[in-house]
Write the structure tokens for this entry.
Amino acid sequence: MNNINLQNFNWDLFRTDVRKDVRNVVLFVVFALGVNIFVTLIMSMLAMFSDPNTISGILSGETSLTAPMSDTALSLITMVGPVAGSFVFLLYRGRRFFTDITLPAPERMTAGTLLMLIVATQGIQFAYGGLVALLDKLLSPLGISLTEGYSASIDALLNPIGILYIVLVGPIFEELIFRGAVMGSLRKYGDNFAILFSALIFGIYHMIFMQVIFAAVLGLLLGYVACRYSLRYSILLHIVVNGLSVLLMESGENTVAEGLGGLAILICCIVTVILIIVFRRKLAARIHAGAPFYARTYANGFSSIAFWLYAIILVGAGIATMAGLSFLEDVMGA
């Protein structure tokens, strides 16, 4: 794309190509998500109804929906679904996928840069945690909590299989899909467009409000790392981020450790702000360098009906899931 004769370039065809590639990316992510949900439902049904008394217990309200499943079984279900969906996506991409992820990296990663990136992820985590806490406080008079259901679902994954998924399996497959296949498919239109779009798709993919915004913002940083330093470093950074999160959650029962962890994340937030100020010109130059060569790339990319349907359906499903779980908990607890 860099050596195009712009005078002879067919802009109408280019606009069509942007919409087509965006549509295809969205459709195949949806297909992968569909496989994920299907496999998860099948495994959940098998686990829930393995005991003949389960159905009658659930119908009578004596047994909750997840009671028949141990935390280990829930973790295994959580792992198998996304992995199956990701494999379907990777099989579709085939050789093109491996071409996308082996693009040469413009820069070499250094220990200092990696440390700054890790600090930045924790700074983002602190800022996002503060935002959620503020929203929780504002919504509490309405009886709405953004963290209660989410915290319970995460606690169920704090076992060996669940931690394996959170720290290792999940980050690897998510990076292969979103920073590898998705972002790689769109880099020909400019790195900034590819990073932004893959980050939004990544955020919406998480569905739950508590994760959507944070995942999208983190996706911007991971996309930048994949573009500048290669996919293996975005995988490494994702593993570190999730690992530190699990470590902080595991220390929750220890007041001193939790306090020290919170203080460390606060310091990371302050350092992140300082880094942004110090390196603002360098960051601005890199953002400028990654801009699409066609001014309306964003408009054409985000005019895809498939993208908006994807966003509306998944965000709506996330809200409905949280409301439905809350309703079921109230019914079962009554």
